[in-house]
Design brief:
With 309 residues, this protein is mainly alpha-helical. It has helices at residues 14-31, 36-45, 50-74, 80-107, 110-141, 175-192, 197-206, 212-237, 243-264, 269-292; strands at residues 2-5, 10-13, 163-166, 171-174. It has one domain (10-292). Strand 3 (163-166) and strand 4 form a beta hairpin. The two termini are 34 Å apart. It comes from Oharaeibacter diazotrophicus.
Length: 309
């Protein structure tokens, strides 16, 4: 059954949209990521313009992140204080990201920037996560002891002022790296239509030394706040949020996130990182291929969507 999308200006099968939302929602709950790094490319590959895909996916990320956050709150696997700091700084980053998004769209460079950013970020982070996870799995199978990562207490970060104690995560660190991380993730989320979890999760684990059991729920909390703000900004500033498309993705995403959260609690940390690394790397490779492959139509007219001038 085809459904016409008023902002995207094309018909698409409603069951395909529900399936996309459910699959990405499952991954959101399982890995602690908003899922936009996968859903945005899927929509673009389906023929929806990058401008509409990026803005609309933000609304789906809000729904799936809210559902996943509730699931982890019930399991007491969320550092609310740390999540609040990340959320406030993430809103600031989202505001900056929407401003850059609008400027690039007016210059006609948004599509190219989105593709290049996906190739660079996804390729790099996918390789790093997969390499580390495979090394950890190989060490365990060989009977070697994997060293426990302790909170960072030395170096530049340890000497920064304004330290805050996060009891749930057993951390006592400066607020500056926490705020910087939130701003960066919020900026990328608004610009690329991603929740930023594929960056936030390894950053919290390897840079701030947050326990793996707390990372996923806390990341979902930050994603919920920053992407809610980004969705409102995109709708009011660029008018590129397709409500019909967003609702279909939300319905599937909310259901999928609940099942994903249950599965994520049962898998080992290194297994989760390996699977996530493979997903991130595969999407980045697909974008790289599309950048160098000869398109089926050498010339096309791509009108500005949403009445931007």
């Amino acid at each position: 059954m085809d459904l016409y999308l008023p902002i995207a200006e094309l018909p698409i099968n409603v069951f395909v949209l529900l399936g996309m939302g459910a699959a990405v929602g499952f991954l959101s709950g399982m890995f602690g990521v908003g899922g936009g790094f996968l859903l945005t490319p899927l929509l673009i590959f389906s023929g929806i313009s990058p401008a509409v895909a990026v803005a609309t996916v933000s609304s789906q990320i809000v729904a799936s992140s809210a559902s996943g956050t509730l699931a982890y709150v019930r399991k007491k696997a969320v550092d609310v204080k740390l999540g609040a700091y990340l959320m406030v700084s993430g809103v600031t980053g989202s505001a900056l990201g929407v401003m850059v998004y609008t400027a690039l769209r007016r210059q006609g460079q948004l599509d190219l920037v989105i593709s290049l950013c996906y190739v660079g970020f996804l390729g790099t982070i996918g390789v790093l996560m997969l390499t580390e996870a495979l090394r950890s799995m190989a060490a365990q199978r060989g009977g070697r002891t994997v060293p426990t990562r302790r909170p960072a207490t030395r170096g530049f970060v340890a000497n920064l002022p304004l330290k805050v104690r996060f009891h749930r995560s057993r951390l006592y660190i400066s607020v500056f790296p926490v705020l910087a991380l939130g701003v960066a993730i919020g900026f990328l989320g608004a610009l690329l239509g991603i929740g930023g979890g594929f960056i936030m999760v390894p950053a919290l684990i390897y840079l701030l030394r947050v326990p793996t059991t707390i990372v996923i729920g806390t990341t979902l909390m930050q994603t919920l706040g920053s992407m809610s703000f980004a969705t409102v900004m995109q709708a009011s500033t660029n008018q590129t949020v397709d409500v019909v498309l967003g609702l279909c993705l939300m319905v599937g995403g909310v259901v999928g996130a609940q099942f994903g959260a249950q599965v994520g609690q049962r898998l080992r940390g290194e297994t989760l990182r390996a699977l996530l690394g493979l997903l991130v790397l595969s999407v980045g490779l697909r974008f790289a291929v599309d950048l160098v492959a000869t398109p089926s139509e050498l010339y096309s007219v791509n009108p500005i969507v949403g009445g931007a001038r």
